[in-house]
Write a structure and sequence with these properties.
It holds the Pfam family BTB. This protein is mainly alpha-helical. It is about 50% helix and about 5% strand. Among the domains are: about 80 residues, Potassium Channel Kv1.1, Chain A (2-Layer Sandwich); about 120 residues, no CATH class. The protein has a three-stranded mixed sheet. Helix 5 packs antiparallel against helix 6 and helix 7 packs antiparallel against helix 8.
């Protein structure tokens, strides 16, 4: 239902303020979107949307134009409203929490100026506290140069990056790219602890008990990128061997590594700190799960 407007609400207002007022108060709206999984109704103006987006223009004026309400299932109402606010006012506040939703919307509806603002935010954040967010977003949207830059930063600032909250929300594919590298500057104890926390979060999101068995299941092949032989024997005995994340055979293999008998269960080469290095091509098949510790050289 259209909201009642104040008298003379146009007087003394800028164009963007007037457009925002009409959107917020649903004045003269001529299209209704049903957005998200709960189909939340959001009203807007075809003219404004078509003037900003080739996709919206085709939606309303093309040969297969929409005649009634429009369903949009792949964007949440929160992000769709942010996108509308930008279309009407050209103002937006981008942060680590909304960047992925806004970037997805800007790509889907070909909002180039919004996409540029998202790219600027990512570029400015690549060497900061949100490097993991930048890395995941660049990976998801195939921004290869930015992905490589963020990965380089994470390698060089391994401990700080792994201890950030954002690390726990990385995908398994991104984690493989981080953990498989010799260039990651981080002790293996921290890597193990953070990976266990990541796995427990995966369990919680799937409503699974955070048992050792489920932690191992959530880790999957990532388990074999943790270099257990690089831990101190005391830490391994007190904190790892006492748990059921590793099998008996795997624990024995680590103890054999401690005593100079190299096994092929876990990687035992040290992670290196090189001041200048080049990243190998970002290919997940460089890790061969069947051999656990075998890295395929290209």
């Amino acid at each position: 239902m259209t909201m009642e407007a104040k008298t003379d609400w146009q007087i003394g207002k800028s164009l963007s303020d007037r457009m925002k007022y009409m959107l917020d108060n649903q004045l003269m709206c001529d299209v209704t979107f049903h957005v998200g999984s709960d189909k939340s109704p959001i009203k807007a103006h075809k003219y404004m949307l078509a003037s900003a987006s080739p996709v919206f223009y085709s939606m309303f004026e093309g040969p297969l134009s929409e005649k009634g309400d429009v369903d949009i299932a792949d964007i949440t109402p929160e992000y769709f409203n942010m996108m509308l606010q930008y279309i009407y006012t050209e103002k937006i506040v981008i942060d680590a929490n909304n960047i992925k939703g806004l970037l997805y919307g800007s790509e889907k509806y070909m909002l180039q100026t919004l996409k540029d603002k998202c790219s600027d935010f990512l570029t400015s954040s690549v060497n900061g506290d949100h490097a993991c967010v930048v890395f995941q977003t660049a990976h998801d949207f195939h921004m290869k140069d930015l992905e490589e830059e963020a990965l380089n930063f994470i390698y060089k600032n391994g401990s700080a990056s792994l201890e950030s909250d954002d690390f726990l929300h990385l995908s398994s594919d991104c984690l493989k790219l981080i953990l498989r590298s010799d260039q990651l500057i981080c002790d293996e104890t921290t890597i193990y602890q953070r990976m266990v926390q990541w796995a427990k979060l995966q369990c919680e999101e799937q409503s699974m008990p955070t048992t050792d068995e489920n932690v191992r299941k959530s880790l999957g092949d990532l388990l074999y990128l943790i270099r257990f032989p690089l831990m101190t024997p005391k830490y391994f005995t007190d904190e790892v061997s006492s748990q059921k994340i590793l099998t008996f055979e795997e624990k024995v293999g680590v103890y054999e590594d401690f005593n100079g008998k190299q096994t092929d269960i876990f990687i035992s080469t040290n992670r290196r700190n090189l001041h200048v290095f080049m990243i190998a091509p970002l290919s997940l098949d460089m890790y061969e799960p069947s051999g656990h510790s075998t890295l395929i050289q290209r």
